[in-house]
């Protein structure tokens, strides 16, 4: 397995894996292109893919650099331990179902953290999918040192209503919760 920065050549398999793991219309070409751009700062790319021996995609981690993402109603900057200008965002992660539980997610995260530190960020915030299979999302982020800030209900419901997202658990009316968590570097 090798971990390498996300590049446009990976976009199609990344979209396919994201939609398989999270649900239809979770990712599309415009979305992944914008994510890629938001993670590049000072010539450093903070988004990564994990590739198998034959070059097949095993997982990906998209990341936004500090100062390059919008802080909206789902974020609680007054509860964060660092200034919002120093806060990066861990956007999406998905590991192929047959590769989950093997530590690939944590390795992708540590590559992202190393890149974010080089960019000058002091911490990263994320919305962890509380209903993820086996509670993998909260578990992996907690093991990495992530601290819970706040739980948000219906985080992805608007994506269903306005963008056709179909959650793998709830279908077209997603009521999954997001754990807003912060990892200080
Ligand atoms: C969450 C995720 C990124 C973690 O990456 P990973 O490489 O599987 O992480 P780890 O191997 O460190 O596993 C973390 C824990 O979750 C458990 N786990 C992961 N996937 C699991 C699954 N499908 N079923 C049951 N348990 C699972 C692991 O057994 C491990 O548990 P442990 O800490 O008790 O040993 C990955 O499992 C994944 O893509 N899951 C589906 C999509 C998802 O939840 N994305 C995150 C959205 S915020």
From TrEMBL:
SUPFAM superfamilies from the UniProt entry: Acyl-CoA N-acyltransferases (Nat)
Top-rank taxon: Bacteria
MF (Gene Ontology): acyltransferase activity, transferring groups other than amino-acyl groups
Coiled coil region boundaries: none
Pfam families for the chain: Acetyltransf_1
InterPro entries: Acyl_CoA_acyltransferase, GNAT_dom
PROSITE patterns: GNAT
Transmembrane region(s): none
Every N-acetyltransferase domain range: 1-168
Annotated protein name in UniProt: N-acetyltransferase domain-containing protein
Lineage, uppermost ranks: Bacteria, Pseudomonadati, Pseudomonadota, Gammaproteobacteria, Alteromonadales
């Amino acid at each position: 397995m090798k971990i390498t920065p996300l590049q446009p050549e990976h976009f199609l398999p990344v979209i396919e894996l994201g939609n398989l793991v999270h649900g239809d219309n979770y990712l599309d070409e415009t979305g992944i292109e914008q994510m890629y751009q938001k993670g590049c700062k000072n010539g450093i790319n903070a988004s990564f893919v994990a590739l198998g021996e034959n070059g097949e995609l095993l997982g990906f981690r998209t990341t936004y650099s500090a100062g390059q993402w919008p802080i909206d109603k789902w974020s609680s900057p007054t509860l964060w331990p660092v200034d919002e200008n120093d806060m990066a965002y861990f956007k999406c992660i998905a590991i192929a179902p047959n590769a989950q539980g093997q530590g690939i997610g944590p390795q992708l995260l540590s590559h992202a953290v190393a890149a974010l530190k080089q960019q000058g960020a002091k911490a990263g915030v994320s919305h962890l999918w509380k209903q993820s299979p086996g509670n993998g999302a909260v578990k992996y982020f907690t093991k990495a040192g992530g601290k819970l800030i706040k739980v948000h209900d219906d985080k992805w419901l608007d994506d269903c209503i306005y963008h056709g997202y179909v959650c793998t658990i709830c279908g077209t009316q997603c009521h999954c919760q997001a754990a807003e968590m912060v990892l200080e570097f």
